[in-house]
Write a structure and sequence with these properties.
four-stranded antiparallel β-sheet, 380 residues, 12 strands
Length: 380
Amino acid sequence: MEMTLRWYGSGYDTVTLEQIRQIPGVSGVITTLYGTRPGEAWPEADIHRLIREVEASGLHVAGIESVNVHDAIKAGLPQRDQYIENYITTLERLGKAGIHMVCYNFMPVFDWTRTELARRRPDGSTVLAYTQAAVDALVPERMFESILGDMNGTVMPGWEPERMAGIKALFEIYRDVDEEKLFENLKYFLECIMPVCDQYDIHMAIHPDDPAWSVFGLPRIIVNKKNILRMMKMVDNPHNGVTFCSGSYGTNLENDLPDMIRALKGRIHFAHVRNLKFHSQDDFEEAAHLSSDGDFDMYEIMKALYEIGFDGPIRPDHGRMIWGEKAMPGYGLYDRALGAAYLNGLWEAIDKTHRKTGIKENGDRMASQSAVKVGGEDKK
């Protein structure tokens, strides 16, 4: 695997490439052209400019998160084909530039949902959090207002002001879209883009819905093992794959994360590994990556990734705000750097254990074969 960090780009991210370069074991960034809008074809010159900037820092672009899918595609509107053509153009330009992994999502209206961006924990750190009761008490149009004050002057992905200004219209276009229709629209989109993915070896990695259940009555489909395996089968192409986000799938406590990883062998192209702390089934907050700080066994998650031979980019996710840092909520430097070091440490320990076990097993096998041979010679 390759340890990376998400970077939103100059002018958008409070964390610099120079700082990321200094995190031990981090060799690449997952980035995007943050100023582009869903449905636009990415300018070739801007893609190359982004790559040059990253490489000048001593890092490389390990993948894109995200090339956002226009709502016309998700909702299956008549104009979707034009937006799909633009998406194909973007993928072609990324492939020609040497980028081979693209994370995206197929969530209607909200890319992700949190009711608090700065819940204070007992240690004084602040974290992203979700409470279903808070969602139930809001109308969708007020959702953005409820978290705006905690954005620390940044623009949160999926919550851009111009997008939120048209939220009523967004809800209207999904009025007749249920889960089955959303699956149909996803299949149509994937079948259209797979030829360019095959041509340029681009791994599409769908991000799960967050949280893994319906919010404001909107359909959610990338939520569990059954649904994600259905998606893999309905477009059975190795370039049709998954971003395995432990924190998103893990919002549903019925999801067995290591089991899901093993079921998706060969189709996980990207991994977000993070931890959650639950106060009830529908009240949770982001935790430090350390297993004991939350409710996930991070060792078992990393072990499952190791055992399926995962070799793609991985990144820590949704860090706490610690040590007085002011940054985009979930995307500061300090706690994500700690997370990267912790995940790298787990991986190293797992790797060394497997190597030692393999050496011992090989030694025992050779000794056994030698004993059989000697025994055979003695019988002669």
